[in-house]
Amino acid sequence: MGRDDSMDAVLARTDHVWPDVYQALKDGIKTAIDLHDFIGWDYRDDSHLYKHMIRRTAVLAIKAHKPDLNPEAEEDEPTLRMSGIILTLKEDLVKVWHVTPAEISAPTTRAKRSFINQPHSRHFQAGLYDEVRDVVSHFRRPEELNKLILRWTVVDHCISRFDLIRPTGAKKKHIVFEWSDDLLERYQLR
Based on the structure, what is the number of domains in the chain? Predict the structure, then answer.
């Protein structure tokens, strides 16, 4: 039987990860604030450095406390290093992206388009998977990792969005997803 990538199954197997990522991003916000205060800059005038410092601190914090998550900076865009964070889990590949609008823009690079294009999980569950295994293998190899996006937003030094998304492609100018789950309330008060 194929791996279950439904929302409930993914949350069950990844729930231990999100508190550490949330805390790492909070630590990154503190670092970015401290850096801007030390230099005397207004973070609103320098949003790219502000978010970069958050990501950089988060990657280092995750590497120090949870090296098994294999955190790395996403660098598929040569002009924008550390545009995101990548976490490699046993069955899932997670890209941690800061997104300001609610909708995520369709990717412009080949690597990001490849990342978001994956079949719906319901095609791989239980009997359906067993019955159409040959057809399904055309779309996804069994060892291929499930791809997820952890979408987060920082507003006034606070994380205002922290949700997990399973993308399946793009329609017009935005990413289409099979499911999403708002994780913010679970970790906001910790």
Answer: 1
Confidence of residue 123 (pLDDT cuts 50, 70, 90): low
Packing angle of the helix pair 18-39, 47-65 (nearest 10 deg): 130
Q: Two tokens at 175?
A: 């990413």
> What's residue 127's pLDDT?
47
User: What is the β-pairing status of strands 174-182 and 158-171?
Assistant: antiparallel
Q: Letter for the amino acid at 116?
A: I
pTM of the model: 0.83
Q: Compute the distance between CA of residue 92 and CA of residue 8 in angstroms, rounded to an integer.
A: 14
The whole-angstrom separation of Cα 179 and Cα 106 is: 17
Instruction: Give the SS3 label for residue 164.
Output: strand
Task: Give domain status of residue 1, yes or no.
Answer: no
2 in a domain, yes or no? no
- Least Cα distance to 57 among 94, 17, 25 occurs for 25
Euclidean distance between CA atoms 14 and 17, whole angstroms: 6
Where does the pLDDT of residue 130 fall: very low under 50, low under 70, confident under 90, or very high at 90 and above? very low
Task: Name the token pair of 169.
Answer: 């492609």
Q: Containing domain of residue 104, as a range?
A: 7-188
